[in-house]
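DM from R.C. (forwarded with permission)

"hey, sorry to bug you on a friday — could you get me a structure for this? deadline for the figure draft is monday and I only need the backbone to look sensible"
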Amino acid sequence: MIYDTSLDTIQGKVFDGERITPAEAVRLYHALTLPELGALADVVRERKHPERRVTYIIDRNINYTNVCDVYCTFCAFMREERDDDSYVLTLEQVGEKIKELVAIGGVQILMQGGHHPKLGIDYYLNLLQYIRRNFPQVNIHGFSPPEFNHFAEVFKMPVEEVIRRFKEAGLGSIPGGGGEILVDRVRQRIAPLKCMSDEWLRVMEIAHGFGLNSSATMMFGHVETIEDRVEHLLRLRELQDRTQGFTAYICWTFQSENTRLKVPSVGSHEYLRMQALSRIFLDNFANVQASWVTQGPQIGQVALKYGANDFGSVMMEENVVSQAGAKFRINEETMQRLIRELGYEPHRRNNWYQLLN
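My reply, with the result:
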């Protein structure tokens, strides 16, 4: 391949805070060593966050149901209604989980679930209203774009109306789940029954228009190419240019255990390389989270020198990637120690990156 721009010129653009093109991003990925790419990402991170601070949040993942009818090949969490271990949580069960979170100072729940074919809108609105009424101090960071597309179909209602009603009932922000790779050719291979790229992005644009912030994600290391990954980043960057509604970006590697997608998992080297490239390319994103949940605490710590400024969540509960083999757990004390060992100050935050301590 012949490149129009020299490597030094591309790196100079990054040092000067200029935007790089997708072709230049691919060039950096192939031409730089992992330490070189990490050092470049660290320059961008330090420019955006010169205060030597690393943030984190105390929250809890609540998966309200594991019943799902989209059969993603990479998922080890979903069940069919007839399975003995399928479930739908009651209001009281969700309430008990939130009480345990509040007791340790938690400020947010990340609430997502399978695409249940029979749950009507009343289940969701009652759940949101119950949480808002009983736990007004807890932000509901809930329901990913594929879920909203599913809701629109099941409720026979425009996506805009679903999001509006969910917000009125208490929804505070939207997680970036279901992004995988925002390239339809890839999505057709790994999750053909899930929403495609334009639909995922449209949910986020509508939500941002309603004043609901969201995160953005990428799950990589399966059937995609590096060009596909950069196309994914480009779609996120373009939407962020229009809305400024994304608060953070998180990427992680495909976890293969107990899934039907039989491809070799990539390791931490590839994770760090991709996170670094993402920090460089996503010049309009303020925050990048380290994914210690899939990579382990030590690599999560190293990720702070590869573009990340946030350590994610203490995560009181996690049920999805753990089903696929990621079993890592840490408490707040350990998280603070890992942050301090690199010379940063640990700070609790809320979903909007406002400091709480």
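R.C.: lifesaver. The radius of gyration is 20 Å.
me: no worries. The longest strand covers residues 246-253.
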